[in-house]
Every structure is written in structure tokens, then in C-alpha cells.
Design a protein that fits this description.
mainly alpha, single chain, 8 helices
Length: 116
């Protein structure tokens, strides 16, 4: 039963999983590999997620800093409802200090961001 559930996991079915199981479900959708294909798959899994905690669970599994930072920035730009605490939590995963500050500012003040 568990293997059937995991093999059926994808972004849409994982959204319906309990929070504690979501990250594992999404990671299962990408396989248990490494390399650019795996990293790209994980980055693509972030886009439909709604919860900051889910994004964090997936993002910390990504070792490619460029892909991780790009995925986090893209995700945060599409979520105008983040609180300061949520924005700081997700933006703290970025590598560059300037990116962390800009990410937090843009996520918490969408009306000031030129991209929105």
C-alpha cells in the first residue's frame, strides 16, 4: 500500500497528503537520485506548493545553490500573502545576504515590487 501511494505521488496528489508526508511524497516524485535532473525536478516541485514549511523541506534537499535560489525566489515572488516571519524563514535559505534581504522585502511588500 505504501509503495503504491508513493509511486502515485506527484505535485497535485502530494498537496493532499498530510503535512508531515508532503516533502517525502514530492521527493519520491523525483526519484532518489542526484545530479542536475534530480535537482531540476525538485525545483519544479516547489512552484505549486502553498506552505512555507513544505518549500523549506524540499529546498534543503537541493544541493545546487543556483537552482535552489532561483526556485525559492520564483516561489516567493508568486506568494503575496507571506508574513514577515514566513518570508524570513524561506528567504534565509538563499546564499547571498543581499538576496535574502531583497527576497524578504519583496515577499512582504508586494505593492512595492515592480514585478507584481
Amino acid at each position: 500500500m505504501v509503495s503504491l501511494l508513493l509511486s502515485a505521488c506527484g505535485p497535485s496528489t502530494c498537496e493532499q497528503s498530510p503535512a508531515a508526508e508532503r516533502a517525502a511524497c514530492l521527493e519520491e516524485a523525483c526519484g532518489h537520485g542526484s545530479g542536475l535532473g534530480y535537482e531540476t525536478c525538485l525545483a519544479q516541485q516547489l512552484a505549486p506548493l502553498r506552505e512555507v514549511e513544505d518549500v523549506q523541506r524540499i529546498a534543503v534537499r537541493m544541493s545546487d545553490v543556483v537552482l535552489r535560489d532561483t526556485a525559492i525566489l520564483s516561489w516567493s515572488e508568486t506568494k503575496p500573502y507571506l508574513t514577515v516571519t514566513q518570508a524570513q524563514a524561506i528567504c534565509s535559505l538563499l546564499l547571498a545576504e543581499g538576496d535574502k534581504l531583497a527576497c524578504t522585502r519583496n515577499a512582504t511588500t508586494p505593492h512595492l515590487s515592480p514585478s507584481r
